[in-house]
Design goal:
With 345 residues, the protein is of the alpha/beta class. The chain has 11 helices and 8 strands.
Length: 345
């Protein structure tokens, strides 16, 4: 009887809901929205990765990955496991992409949660309405996304493990090889940088810097004349909503931000609830966002300047369920934060 009583005490639930997210900043914001019945904890990103012993992949066993908990995450995993055991329900709220889905799956494996029963929730913006809608519409882990992430991770390890030593020996020590960067190709173009009435750009691209420089050498003494010109009315359409790549391009062009700096700042804006999720290849906008934008435009400029547009995502295989990157609240003109966060916002 004493042993049975002790067992019941050990498994007693101390809180109703445990929500696990990726970052601590996001955890604080979400906990404010959910209230006292929810405890929100962070996994601080991935909790385990391929073993560093040998390849970490059993090539002869259908490329089976061998995972291990990161040494710096062991105490965190113990804390998460304790809280998961004490909770009535566990909700996995990592980001809605391959990496986020993999993080959720790894959590089920390490914490002993059933994959087909654990509640998986996703949201594209950290607002109260988005969080509550996610809680009301949970799903299970998408193993297709998990397997896609695992395949990419295994390829990264295989390519890097095989190619990096060759680079160190043949090219330069400390160089690294990756699944993507090892096959990257650069294309060159030429144009006339002179600040004249007409900007001229060649209608073809060169495969190497040497070819481009050779062509420019032949143009150095050339004399160009405009034989005719035509002026006519034109209609200019606004650029489409931001995807990850176009956000990076504009931040680089207008703000001088590097890709890594842009993504780090956007991550903080997202975690603080200022913008929607910053990793997306979709140009879709929700009907609520379009309505909010229309309201703000009419208020600021008048009815004649409001014209809703439907943008079609050009990227093949884009996840149309995602939204483009936009402010979470269209009527919020300024935010609190660092100078970089304010500039990008």
């Amino acid at each position: 009887m004493a042993q049975e009583k002790q067992r019941n005490t050990d498994t007693k639930k101390t809180h109703e809901n445990l929500v696990i997210v990726e970052s601590p900043a996001k955890a604080k914001t979400i906990e404010k929205f959910l209230g006292k019945d929810y405890t929100v904890m962070s996994s601080y990103g991935h909790i385990r990765d391929l073993s560093k012993k040998e390849l970490g992949i059993a090539i002869d066993d259908n490329f089976k990955p061998d995972y291990e908990i990161s040494p710096d995450k062991k105490k965190l995993v113990e804390s998460l496991a304790k809280s998961a055991k004490e909770a009535e329900r566990v909700w996995l709220a990592s980001d809605e992409d391959r990496e986020g889905e993999a993080i959720a799956w790894h959590l089920t494996q390490v914490l002993g949660l059933p994959v087909d029963q654990t509640r998986r929730i996703v949201f594209h913006e950290i607002t109260k309405s988005a969080i509550m809608a996610a809680i009301e519409n949970p799903r299970t882990i998408d193993m297709n996304l998990v397997n896609a992430q695992q395949a990419r991770r295994v390829l990264d390890r295989l390519v890097g493990f095989e190619l990096s030593p060759v680079l160190w020996k043949k090219v330069k020590p400390s160089l690294s090889a990756g699944r993507v960067q090892s096959v990257a190709v650069r294309f060159y173009r030429t144009d006339d940088p002179a600040k004249t009435l007409f900007k001229a750009e060649l209608d073809r691209r060169f495969d190497s810097a040497e070819e481009a420089e050779g062509f420019l050498g032949t143009c150095r003494e050339a004399d160009f004349r405009v034989l005719s010109s035509e002026s006519k009315p034109a209609e200019r359409h606004p650029a489409g909503p931001f995807t990850t790549s176009t956000l990076q391009q504009e931040a680089g062009r207008k703000l001088g931000m590097s890709v890594s700096q842009t993504m780090a700042v956007a991550q903080r804006l997202y975690e603080n609830g200022y913008i929607t999720y910053m990793r997306t290849d979709s140009q879709n906008l929700s009907s609520q966002a379009i309505a909010a934008a229309r309201e703000e435009i009419i208020k600021m400029f008048g009815e004649e300047y409001s014209s809703a547009r439907k943008y079609k995502t050009k990227s093949k295989g884009a996840q149309e369920a995602h939204e483009a990157i936009r402010p979470s609240y269209l009527n919020r003109q300024q935010i609190e934060g660092s100078p970089e966060e304010k500039r990008l916002y």
